[in-house]
Structures are given as C-alpha cells and as structure tokens.
C-alpha cells in the first residue's frame, strides 16, 4: 500500500488482507472484487463523531427521497440529498444552489471523504454543472467531519416524490421528465416517526408490509445487550400491533426493524416509539449495574441470529 494511505482510528487498512476473503467493508463481495481492487482505506463507521450520524446512515441506505440543509461550519449553504438525478455525487443548479448526493456509485472506502470532496468541487464549479462520481484526483485528507458542526442535527425532510429535482426555471425537458417519472414510479411511501426520545426512526410501506427502521447510535454490543434484556422481559415490541423482525448493520451502526400493522397510519407509531425509547434508555442505563443473566444471554444469541450487514 502506498505511503499516501491515510491512517485513522476509525479505519481498517487493507494491508495483509487475503483477496479471497470477504471484504471487511461488509458488502458481501470478495476483497479482491471490492476494496482490494485499489489503494484505499475502509472506514467502517464513516460518520462517527457527528450527532447527525444516524440520519446520514438512513439517507445513504434506505431513505428514497429526502433532503436536509448541510450544517457546515462556515455557513456556506449546501443541501444534502438522498439521491440526485443519475445518482450524481453533486450538482450546482443554474441559480448556484449546491446539492450533494448520498446514494452514489463509488468504490471509495470513506464516504465522509467523498462528501467533503464533492462539496469542495461544487463550491468552485460553474452553475449548471454536475459531478457524476468522486474520483481519486478529487479526494484529499479532508473529511465531512472537518466541515460540519459536529453537534448539529439534520433538519431532514422526507419527500413523497422527486419533484424537488426540478429547479424553478421552467418546464423540464423530455429526458428530465422521463427520469423523474421513472424515479417516482419506484419510490416507497416513507415517513419520519417523531416523538420524545425518538430520532432517525422511519416508517416505510413496501407494498406487502409496513416496517419501522430505527438507526441507533449506541455501540452494537451495548445495544444488543439492552435489546436482549427487553426481549426476555417481553418488552421488545413497540406495541401489540408490531413484531420485532431483526436488525441490519449499516456503516458501523445497528438498525433494528419492526414489522407493523399495515392498516395503521405512520403517525400512530409516534407514541409507541416514544414509549420504547424510554424503556430502551432505562435498560441501557441499568446494564452497568446488572450484567446479563443466562436467559438474557440466550436471548441475545437469538437476536444476533437475525442480523445482516449492509455495509
């Protein structure tokens, strides 16, 4: 590996990786077909240190249409988006507005560095320009954490469609209109669930089922211990109209998932989610004083069997 490779506490380097083993980024691909294809650093938890980390993970992985003003330290305006037309990394509208895309095609192992590079590119780009992908020549040692207010939450808006793709400068052309129609045709109804103690929880209707996906900021071991204790107590469900389905890992965080009664409106889950948040917080606080029992360890093993890794 070249000397230019960055070393970070949150990163796992590719030195010594067996090319036939699964890539440590969690993609499920062999290392040689993923990050082993080039000189790169794999950052397992790219948004660590930011209060907005759970929402950033949600925007990257499963929110279909969402935007949020980016809380940059210097105050220069930019908008973060779940996905941009053509899955672009960035675009600058004719009026100078900057948009950065989260769901892009990239082989980089550090999403935070890619976003920082895309923002730097956009600030000097001509209005009307777009950046399809962040290439190696654009990356530097700067990361998203270097540019954002670390304590700021994202003021995130979940949209019902992709109408916000269109600038307010006239009717879209035939190609843009067709792209918008295709994107809108596959969007899944998604809503943010809000309540006391609830953050980064999202209701989604997949057509056959409704789910609540809740990105949690706690370390996985601690969160799993708390979920196991709640499971053993029969308190893991949000309500009688829900069922804990399992969890998935995404960019270093665990995302518990519940199956929900599809007939209930998304807003009806605010109170059950708030009640669960209070139970979980109390359980997390009690872990240090009372270790898991034998039965709770068994419950943890059962829950661990319901996990998958996205990244």
UniProtKB/TrEMBL annotation:
Residues 46-311 form the DUF5926 domain. It comes from the Bacteria. It holds the Pfam family DUF5926. Residues 1-24 are annotated as: Disordered. This is SEC-C motif-containing protein.
């Amino acid at each position: 590996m070249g000397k230019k490779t960055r070393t970070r506490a949150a990163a796992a380097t590719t030195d010594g990786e067996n090319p036939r083993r699964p890539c440590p980024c969690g993609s499920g691909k062999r290392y040689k077909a993923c990050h082993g294809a080039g000189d790169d650093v794999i950052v397992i938890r790219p948004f660590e240190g930011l209060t907005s980390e759970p929402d950033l993970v949600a925007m990257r992985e499963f929110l279909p249409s969402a935007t949020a003003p980016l809380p940059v330290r210097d105050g220069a305006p930019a908008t973060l988006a779940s996905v941009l037309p053509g899955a672009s990394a960035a675009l600058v509208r004719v009026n100078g507005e900057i948009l950065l895309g989260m769901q892009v095609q990239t082989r980089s192992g550090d999403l935070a560095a890619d976003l920082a590079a895309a923002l730097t590119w956009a600030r000097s780009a001509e209005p009307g320009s777009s950046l399809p992908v962040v290439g190696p020549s654009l990356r530097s040692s700067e990361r998203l954490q270097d540019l954002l207010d670390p304590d700021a939450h994202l003021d995130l808006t979940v949209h019902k469609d992709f109408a916000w793709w269109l600038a307010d400068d006239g009717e879209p052309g035939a190609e843009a209109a067709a792209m918008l129609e295709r994107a809108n045709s596959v969007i899944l109804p998604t809503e943010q669930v809000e309540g006391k103690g609830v953050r980064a929880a999202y209701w989604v209707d997949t057509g056959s089922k409704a789910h609540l996906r809740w990105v949690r900021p706690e370390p996985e071991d601690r969160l799993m211990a708390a979920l196991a204790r709640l499971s053993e107590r029969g308190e893991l469900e949000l309500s009688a109209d829900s069922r804990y389905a399992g969890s998935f890992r995404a960019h270093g965080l665990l995302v518990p998932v519940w199956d929900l009664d599809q007939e209930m409106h998304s807003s009806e889950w605010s109170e059950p989610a708030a009640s669960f948040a209070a139970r979980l917080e109390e359980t997390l606080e009690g872990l240090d004083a009372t270790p898991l029992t034998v039965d709770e360890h068994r419950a943890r093993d059962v829950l661990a069997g319901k996990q998958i890794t996205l990244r």
